[in-house]
């Protein structure tokens, strides 16, 4: 049951990226190219996704618990910290250079482009490096303090 | 390369992404953040539900094949073949999403839908550096 639900959710997500054109890095880079071949499609993808999610979450999060899990795992951090700012900044640079973010890159794997086969392993290395760095800076015991804004 | 503005298809695709995000919250109680889901497949598996994450990724991988079967045409995309550029960009995207706690889906869709100030700030920052990067790449260096 859980495997089927997750597979279908992934399939719907991937079809969304394909149908919207976001699985084409050229379309994403054109959104980011205000001074050139600007294509505003991405903003409508975000708009459609955010509106559906905003309304859907309102109903779902009112329930006592998820259908297949013990509890809702919703991020609780509120502070802006150096990690958020630097992480998002670096992410945007990589996104602009390639036109790929994690979802479209994974969805693209079986389209067999050479660049995708280079991008995805490099992305996994990046995720691993970030994990090593953030875990190395955690206090002993690995518990994230409630207000981790000191860095 | 010029791409065509596709308002209907893009809005429809966005709605599908939203439906998937609501599904994951309703069934698993989790955010549909792709970098987080991918991260759960990497050791030490601290994020839990490795099987769920793997099933979701299989669905993502199947999407372009299902699309091709349904429409009779493969999905056309333009991916840079510049190995150094794609390797560097991949590390930046993975590292940045890991450090910043999310990517375009986790912050840009789910976080904004939750009206999370952190996600609004993260999205504004990665949009800004994305705009700046493409500007430099296409109009300063490549111009």
Structure summarized in a few sentences:
The complex is a heterodimer of chains A (151) and B (143). By secondary structure, chain A is mainly alpha-helical.
Description of the molecule:
The complex is a heterodimer of chains A (151) and B (143). Chain A has helices at residues 2-19, 25-31, 41-60, 82-98, 102-107, 114-136. Chain A starts with a helix and ends in a 15-residue tail after the last helix. Chain A is an all-alpha fold and 151 residues long. The longest helix of chain A is centred in the last third of the chain and has 23 residues, at 114-136. Chain B has 143 residues and is mostly helical. Chain B is globular, with a radius of gyration of 17 Å. The model of chain B has no long low-confidence stretch (mean pLDDT 96). Classes of the chains: A mainly alpha (151), B mainly alpha (143). The interface between A and B is large, with 117 and 112 residues.
Oligomer: heterodimer
Structural class label of chain B = mainly alpha
The percentage of residues in β strands of chain B lies in: under 5%
Largest interface comes to: A-B, 117 and 112 residues
What integer value in Å does the Rg of chain A equal? Answer: 18 Å
How much beta of chain A, percentage-wise?
under 5%
Overall mean pLDDT of chain B stands at: 96
List the helices and strands and how they pair.
The complex is a heterodimer of chains A (151) and B (143).
Chain A: H1 2-19, H2 25-31, H3 41-60, H4 82-98, H5 102-107, H6 114-136
Chain B: H1 7-28, H2 34-39, H3 50-71, H4 83-100, H5 106-113, H6 117-141
Helix pairs in contact in B: 5-6
Note the main attributes of this structure.
heterodimer; A: 151 residues; mainly alpha; globular; disordered C terminus; B: 143 residues; 6 helices; 0% strand
